[in-house]
Amino acid sequence: MKNGAKKKTVLIVDDVELFIQLEISHLGRKRYDIHTASNGNQGLEMARSIKPDIILLDLVMPDMNGDQVCRILKDDPDTSSIPIIIVSSGTREHSRSIIVSSGCDGLIFKPVRRDLLLSVVESLLKTNTRLFERMDVIIPCTVKMDDNEFSGMIYSLSSTGVFVELERPVIRGDMMEMKFQLPAVENGISVRTGAVTWCGSFKDDGPSGAGIQFLTISAETQTHINDYVRTHLGTDTLVGKGS
Fold first, then answer.
1. Does residue 237 have a pLDDT over 50?
2. Judgement on whether residues 120 and 153 belong to the same structural domain of the protein
3. pLDDT at 50
4. Is a pLDDT exceeding 80 seen at residue 3?
5. What residue numbers bound the domain in which 111 lies?
């Protein structure tokens, strides 16, 4: 860690050791202080004991499902502020309906993508280093998620992502395709994979929406976005505040 800063503590709760080791590999022990539990009851005990900075919680376990564990922790004043990400191997529709009611802070599906996991964890822990300037825009977009296409409006753009107001609610961990138009880009901008890393209002008096980070994007498309942001901000560098 830089400047001797204390590592953030992560608790991983899963009854399958393979998934625990995969998440450990994605996060890295050099970056995080990682603890593990193999069932829901053990996870409850450890959460109350070590007070981790964040919990990755398997949805389906033999003794107590993740949504049950989440409800107990969120109802306890001593643990209610701990961010909890549910990790699910179930269907998206079923998992979403369960975890939204549990009060968890995000949902990620197995097999877990490293880039998605790091993006969501770093956002919740506020450890992500933002290196790219953002610009205010008003750009219509279309989003495709779960084979459903719907509209949105982008209000902030950077080289790494956007803030967008969408027609339907989303949660941290949701992944989507995104398309929008930029001047002088004949075929428009197409983001193959974007991930919701936070939800809320971009500004105090602004619309509610979601911060979307670009995970999978072609080199050509990335260049188009970089050039557009750089040109309109009137700077030769993209280093600065992030989006």
1. no
2. no
3. 97
4. no
5. 2-125
CA distance 241 to 230: 13
Alpha carbons 22 and 241: distance in angstroms, whole number: 32
| Distance (Å) of CA 40 to CA 87, 165, 242 | 13, 36, 37
DSSP state of 221: H
Report the SS3 class of residue 170: coil
Among 125, 160, 189, residue at a domain's last position: 125
CA–CA dist 43, 15 (Å, integer): 10
* Domain-located, residue 238: no
Phi-psi region of 3 (alpha: psi -120 to 50; beta: other; left: phi over 0): left
Q: How do residues 18-54 score in pLDDT, each as one tens digit?
A: 999 999 999 999 999 999 999 999 999 999 999 999 9
Q: Tell me: do 88 and 35 sit in the same domain.
A: yes
Q: Which ranges of 126-241 would DSSP assign to H, the alpha helix? A: 219-233
Number of domains in the chain: 2
CB 101 within 8 A of CB 166: no
Listed residues 125, 143, 158: the one ending a domain: 125
The enclosing domain of 224 has a CATH number of 2.40.10.220
Mean pLDDT over each residue of the chain, to the nearest integer: 89
pLDDT exceeds cutoff 50 at 243: no
